[in-house]
Amino acid sequence: MKMIFSYLRPYVPRMILGLSIKFTGTIMDLLIPWVLSYTIDDIVPLGDVKLIFVWGGVMFLCAVTAFVTNVTANRMASKVARDATEVIRHDLFEKISYMSCRQVDEFTIPSLESRLTNDTYHIHRMIGMMQRLGVRAPILLLGGIIVTLALEPVLSLTLILMLPFITLLVYLISKKGIPLFTESQRSVDKLVRTVRENIAGIRVIKALSKTAYEKERFGKVNSEVVKNESRAGITMALTNPAMNLLLNLGLTLVIITGAYRINAGLTKSGEIIAFLTYFTIILNAMLSITRMFVMYSKGSASADRIREVLEAPDDLVAESVSHTNDEYHITFENVTFSYHKSKSSAVCFDNGRDEKKNTLEDISFALRKGETLGIIGATGSGKSTIARLLLRLYDPDEGVIRISGNDLRSIPQDELHTKFGVVFQNDILFADTIASNISFGREISQEQIEKAAACAQAREFIDQLPLRYEHMLATKSSNLSGGQKQRLLIARALAADPEILILDDSSSALDYKTDSLLRKALAEDFGNTTTIIIAQRISSIMHADRILILEDGKMLGYGTHTQLLETCEVYREIYELQMGGDSIA
Fold first, then answer.
1. Which of 77, 190, 371, 427 could crosslink 131 through cysteines, CB 3.0-4.6 Å?
2. The pTM is what?
3. Which residues, given as ranges, of the chain have pLDDT below 70?
4. CATH of domain 2-192+227-310
């Protein structure tokens, strides 16, 4: 909860003002029964109608003041809760944005989404309720007890005897409830993950007639959420009926005792009426405190989950590492990497991979500026991992990666990423114009956009659109073909004239002619750009200056196309399968 208090610190003056207004309204609520008691016992017997109206007016003024001040204070509390939660959500989003991919893998994307939405909602409700009831309920409780002690000390003892039992009840239930709400939030993470998978794969699910299966799978996860929320809800729901039972038992004793005291002439009827009113106020105050504890339990569990993310260490900070005078632009020196060797303090979630196996092992190669490296290998051989390491989305477990002699760990993230133009395997275009998707929020002129589109072989289909570069793309670019989407993604990567270009299986949807024209345009217009092409088709990389063959994370071959045909059996087999054996000769 220290994290929440730190975010509330800028709003302390506003909160103090709001709580002062709330305090005034609460005092007015406490005065009304006392004025009623005084009017019945002391004013009515005088028979002075004017005085009765005067004290009735006092009660009315107290009621109006209580209403206005409570409404004003509640509005102020809502604004504080809104503004504080906005800052928390912003900082959480910013922290997630700058997390390393390793940390994102450990927390999991569904869990981060749940923390950013569901958990911040619980924080918002907790901050608002603690302000609305945090002053009012205790003052009504303590003030009611004090006033009843002044009115009728004997009857008040009955109420006071109930308080230790009520306090113990709230403590025990809250202690059990917080862990249950934490478990409930984890099950919500699973629910979010299942929904994400269903939405992402909706076309495949329909195509394979697996709707019923997915409904059953969702039903199991949904049932788990309901089960956990029910356990937490039932546990916390015990508070209200148990407190009602205790307080109503006390109220029954008060009425019985009060009846005997009135009959004996020891208590006035107005005092009993006021006492019963105060007892109702105290009952409602205790129920409000119970609601606060329920909301506090949810908010506390959510605050801990948010704190885990906000306090996660910066995993990929720039380090002071020695520089090497190197003739090569990109160098991998004995790089070994596994996705499972966690450096983060976050809880690691199993993603189904074999933890004993390295994804890459002892990878070494070097490229001069302007050279092209082609990477080919079976699925899961570690091709895309090389690109992720070069972008420093992850740090290698062993070995060094250098750009122009500088260890990647010594280059600040913002500076490093401006060097790259990247097309990932499963990249995304946004529901915006073509021009906006290519420029991608960068200061790129229309001339650069059109040049990049021409080089990426996208100009032909863009010119056929009525609005050309202002054509609006649908969500997930569903109004484009696979090839058109890949060409726009390549145009986006080229638009800022990158120093290093990474194309990760970015031509799989292109026909051979377009692929050939793309490679030709890259050679002519981006000759000084060091390029890494990851591909499944040997035709896409056979003209590269260097070709790297990967299998199970290990290098099977490295060299030119001609050298590999002579020395690497695996490369030769791929070439024969894809290009035909006669072409070797």
1. 77
2. 0.68
3. 1, 159, 174, 177-178, 200, 240, 269, 318, 320-325, 341-356, 509, 580-585
4. 1.20.1560.10
How far apart are the C-alpha atoms of 34 and 45, rounded to whole Å? 17
Strands (E), 342-447: 360-367, 372-377, 398-403, 406-407, 420-423
Give residue 348's pLDDT.
38
CATH superfamily of 321-338+356-419+543-578: P-loop containing nucleotide triphosphate hydrolases (3.40.50.300)
- Angle at which helix 269-310 crosses helix 12-38, to 10 degrees, equals 170
In whole angstroms, give the CA distance from residue 27 to residue 442.
58
pLDDT digits (tens, 9 = 90+) for 366-410: 888 888 898 888 877 888 888 888 988 888 888 888 888 888 888
Residues pairing with 547 in the sheet: 374, 559
What tens digit of pLDDT does each residue of 503-548 get? 887 777 677 788 788 888 888 888 888 889 888 878 778 888 888 8
Nearest alpha carbon to residue 508 among 425, 385, 577: 425
The Cα–Cα gap between 56 and 63 comes to 11
Q: State both tokens at 33.
A: 């029964």
- The beta strand positions in 301-433, using DSSP E, are 330-337, 360-367, 372-377, 398-403, 406-407, 420-423
Residue 344's pLDDT is 41
What is the layout of strands, in order, in the sheet containing 546-551? 420-423, 500-504, 530-534, 372-377, 546-551, 554-559
Tell me the C-alpha distance between 66 and 30, whole Å.
10
Domain limits of the chain?
2-192+227-310, 321-338+356-419+543-578
Radius of gyration of the chain (CA): 35
Tally of CA atoms within 13 A in the half-sphere of 10 that contains its CB: 8
Q: Which residues neighbour 448 within 8 Å (Cβ) at sequence distance 6 or greater? A: 495, 496, 497
Q: Where are the alpha helices (DSSP H) in 2-100?
A: 2-8, 12-38, 49-97
Q: Which percentage of the chain shows pLDDT scores above 90?
A: 1
